[in-house]
Design brief:
The complex is a heterotrimer of chains A (about 250), B (about 280) and C (about 325). By secondary structure, chain A is an alpha/beta fold. Chain A has one domain: Rossmann fold (3-Layer(aba) Sandwich). Helix content of chain A is about 40%, strand content about 30%. In chain A, the strands form two sheets. Chain A has a six-stranded mixed β-sheet with strand order 6-7-8-3-9-10, with helices on both faces. In chain A, helix 8 links the parallel strand 7 and strand 8. Chain B is mainly alpha-helical and about 280 residues long. In chain B, helix 8 runs antiparallel to helix 11. Chain C has about 325 residues and is mostly helical. In chain C, helix 6 runs antiparallel to helix 11, helix 8 packs across helix 11 and helix 12 crosses helix 13. The longest helix of chain C is centred in the C-terminal third of the chain and has 38 residues. Classes of the chains: A alpha/beta (about 250), B mainly alpha (about 280), C mainly alpha (about 325).
């Protein structure tokens, strides 16, 4: 069963200078519990693709054509309010730079609790904190009580990324988009975060879309790989297939 | 963000006002200082385009002549304050920390004296007010915030990598200054200078209005309005509205020009999307 | 931690005292260098009736022949005891003259400040939410125009329209003759001056709030907040505002004396009996004792508020609160 299906999706930026097509006629599907790596050069439209599915793009960007199905339902024409209800609970996203993704003026605990409160409004104050502590434990943050009181600038990049993941997981989403989630981190921390994704998938059974420009990351973590170039998908397949094809192509050249 | 539009209309109006003030000696039908008591408080009409004031002077000629004085003061005061500010700011930005600290403390001290009171003091020191003394006084009170901006810019620029790179490539002091530093802080200095012209004109008119600047006999945009209390009593709206419109028009044009010179904001797009602008954006296509 | 806090407080108090001291030296020197016989400040018009010998004697007695430094020391001595000399124009103690009027200025300036504080924040949020849409553009245009209107001319305009043409509101003074205690009458007299104070400053601050928020709205954390499922408006109020608030509060602390000082011109036009009218009168009639105290008062307020601003942003912004710069850091602007 496909949790997410995208058909012929085209996204354009309408600038005063003219239209820029960032995503061209992309189709792919995401199976339940699967990790799909979207791989391509910087600026090829990977990030725009993810954000357009969540409708988090700035005003000047629009979905031109295509359909998006989430859990079997078409959400292409969903209003902002309808999308808002899906965000966090069905889709979640982890961003490239955890240090800027967290609000610098709020303690990380408050930011996690906020996400919990949005999706489980019935909980009491204590239960919310409890739930936040569970989430922090889930993503491998130690001493949740102390951590929660810290501000983003007081913790390391890896820790901050774990906090962002905790926020993303607050409402047990079915699909997690990881938009270059490890790029801004140290290499050892990258490996830890990738392991965390694998572990989370095992625990929660969610699907993950891993956006990266690093073939190593894709090969290590993903089940399937989608290659992107200049806004187009040039190939989707199992990790082995795709990498063999790449090697083959390069040998031919 | 879209590129800022060039404020052509503002420039046009400003040029028109400047030409009107400086080149219209012939148009000035009457001597602005001549008080014809037979024609007090005449409403605008054929003989007096903008009417006459409570002392029987022709407002048309007064605006023309007064504008010359006001604009001159604005320009001279800005010249002085800009020179002072650039000097103090760059010395402070380049000097060792201790001298910088003293200079900045001094700037703070000057800033903490309320501007108008400082002006009043200086005015008293200089004695009788004329165009030049008023320019000096306004110039001396308007350099502080600009000096701070220059200092910040110089400090920032001094430590940028491209300046270092330019030096490494063998660029001399003046090469670095003119090719690399000046283009960077020029827009903000220019912006502040234009704003200083505006502030100087406001200061002149305010001072003259409350009777601390130019005397009533010396016609400027401020001193024309200092007679407005009588005008209020006699309901002569033209004495207040017409010179004021010229004053505000000039200030507005200067502000628009200054904002344009500050350079393009060139910001990213808002992350707060929410579809709210979609319709508008689609319409623009 | 506690010791550090006390140290910082002491440092701030010391800096404050030092600055006020420097300010008083500056103001004193200028006032003594200014033309006009300081003897007038003590005796008023009686000086003209004195003989040259009497004048000389008085000078000697008042210490006016001594070096500036000694004179300053004496003035300071008096000032510490609360004796600031006599106002030439009002023929009474400077302290009394000021005490009689400072209330009026504080009402006008204080109300103006409160209104500006609330309205600027609201207007800034309103415009930031509607960035680049018609409402925002129109408000920005109007704001630019109002910021170009000198306060005195705006006062004249309002007087002409509301006091002369329409005759709705009184145009001068703080109360009608004989209605000193009437609150409604006082309020009616406040409307126009207050309108000028607010209109004259509002857009400057609202525009700063708007621009600051527009920067915040472009930050990455907005995406994360929306991804959580927050509405756009909730993100603006709960997240972006939180980022903009420290700088707004410190800006408003700096603004406090400016707005209070901005009432000077307005008071003069509306003949409102406050410190501002006093400042201009004293400057015009060279009543230097009075002028000195007025400027010292205003200057001290500026210095105090500047330091307050530094402390506020140091307490609110967690980045500054935790890493803490010594002395709370100055707000430069």
């Amino acid at each position: 069963m496909d949790v997410l299906k995208v058909e012929n999706l085209s996204v354009s930026f309408y600038r005063p200078e003219g239209e820029i097509e960032a995503v061209k006629n992309v189709s792919f599907s995401l199976r339940e519990g699967e990790i799909l790596a979207v791989m391509g050069e910087t600026g090829c439209g990977k990030s725009v693709l993810c954000k357009s599915i969540l409708k988090l793009l700035p005003d000047i960007a629009r979905i031109k054509t295509g359909h998006i199905y989430a859990g079997g339902e078409e959400i292409t024409d969903y209003s902002e309010e309808q999308m808002r209800k899906l965000r966090g609970s069905f889709f979640s996203m982890v961003f490239q730079n955890p240090m800027t993704a967290l609000n610098p003026c709020m303690s990380v605990g408050a930011q996690i609790v906020e996400a919990v409160r949005l999706h489980q409004p019935g909980l009491s104050r204590r239960e919310r904190r409890q739930r936040a502590a569970e989430l922090m434990h889930l993503v491998g943050l130690d001493h949740p009580g102390e951590r929660a009181r810290q501000y983003p600038f007081q913790i390391s990049g890896g820790m901050a990324q774990r906090c962002v993941i905790a926020i993303a997981l607050a409402a047990q989403p079915s699909v997690l988009f990881a938009d270059e989630a490890t790029t801004a981190l140290d290499v050892t921390v990258q490996a830890q975060i990738l392991d965390l994704f694998l572990e989370l998938r095992k625990k929660t059974g969610m699907s993950i879309v891993l956006v990266t420009h690093n073939p190593g990351v894709a090969a290590r973590t993903a089940d399937r790989v989608a290659l992107m170039k200049d806004g187009e998908l040039t190939g989707v397949g199992d990790v082995e297939e795709i990498f063999e094809e790449i090697i083959h192509r390069q040998n031919v050249i | 963000m879209m590129k800022k539009k060039f404020p052509a209309l503002s420039l046009l109006i400003l040029t028109a006002i400047v030409i009107f003030c400086f080149a219209c000696e012939g148009l000035m039908a009457m001597d602005p200082r001549y008080m014809d008591l037979a024609y007090c408080n005449e409403a605008p009409g054929k003989e007096f385009f903008f009417g006459t004031d409570t002392m029987g002077r022709d407002i048309f000629s007064m605006i023309c002549h007064g504008g010359r004085i006001s604009l001159t003061i604005g320009f001279l005061a800005t010249l002085l304050s800009t020179i002072l500010a650039v000097f103090a700011g760059s010395v402070s930005g380049c000097a060792p920390a201790r001298i910088d600290g003293v200079l900045m403390a001094l700037t703070e001290l000057f800033l903490s004296v309320p501007g108008l009171l400082l002006t009043v003091f200086l005015q008293a020191v200089f004695g009788g007010a004329n165009v030049y003394s008023l320019s000096v006084v306004i110039g001396l009170t308007g350099w502080m915030s600009m000096a701070k901006v220059v200092r910040t810019e110089v400090l920032q620029l001094r430590h940028t990598d491209y300046v270092l790179a330019a030096k490494c490539l063998g660029g001399g002091f003046f090469h670095v200054l003119f090719r690399h530093l000046a283009p960077n802080f020029f827009p903000s200095v220019l912006f502040m200078a234009v704003m200083n012209v505006r502030n100087a004109i406001i200061a002149e008119s305010t001072l003259s209005f409350v009777g601390l600047g130019l005397p009533v006999e010396e016609v400027s945009w401020g001193s024309i309005l200092s007679l407005s209390e009588n005008a209020l009593l006699s309901r002569s709206w033209w004495i207040i509205l017409i010179p004021g419109a010229f004053l505000v028009g000039t200030l507005l044009c200067l502000t628009n020009l200054g904002n344009y010179m500050r350079g393009n904001a060139n910001r990213r797009h808002s992350n707060l999307g929410c579809e709210k602008n979609h319709k508008k954006n689609m319409k623009q296509l | 931690m506690r010791k550090l806090y006390i140290d910082r407080m002491l440092y701030n108090v010391g800096k404050f005292v030092l600055r006020v001291f420097a300010l008083s030296v500056l103001v004193f020197t200028i006032s003594r260098l200014a033309p006009g016989d300081p003897l007038y400040a003590y005796y008023g018009e009686r000086v003209e009736k004195m003989s040259v010998a009497q004048q000389e004697q008085a000078r000697e007695r008042l210490g006016l022949n001594e070096p500036l430094f000694t004179q300053y020391a004496r003035w300071m001595q008096g000032a510490c005891r609360g004796d600031f000399g006599i106002s030439y124009q009002y023929k009474t103690d400077v302290k009394e003259v000021i005490a009689a009027r400072i209330g009026n200025t504080l009402i006008l300036g204080g109300l103006g400040f409160l209104l500006i504080f609330v309205l600027a924040l609201w207007l800034g949020l309103f415009c930031a939410w509607r960035e680049d849409r018609a409402a925002d553009r129109i408000i920005c245009k109007i704001g630019t125009v109002t910021s170009c209107v000198p306060e005195f001319w705006l006062s004249l305009l309002l007087l002409l329209v509301f006091a002369v043409w329409l005759d709705w509101l009184p145009g001068s003074g703080a109360y009608s003759v004989g209605k000193e205690g009437d609150a409604a009458d006082r309020a009616a007299h406040l409307v126009l001056p207050l309108a000028v104070v607010v209109l004259g400053h509002l857009w400057y601050y609202a525009f700063q709030v708007r621009n600051r928020l527009l920067e915040e709205v472009r930050a990455d954390y907005v995406l994360l907040a929306r991804m959580k499922g927050l509405r756009g408006k909730q993100v603006l109020y709960r997240h972006c505002l939180r980022g903009a608030l420290p700088s707004y509060l410190s800006m408003m602390a700096v603004a406090l004396p400016h707005i209070l000082g901005g009432t000077y011109v307005v008071e003069t036009v509306f003949s409102y009996p406050g410190i501002g009218t006093l400042a201009y009168e004293s400057a015009r009639y060279q009543d230097y004792n009075l002028l000195m105290v007025v400027s010292l008062l205003t200057g001290t307020a500026v210095i105090f508020c500047n330091m307050l601003a530094g402390m506020i942003s140091g307490r609110i912004d967690p980045r500054m609160r935790i890493h803490g710069l010594p002395g709370g850091g100055e707000v430069r602007g």
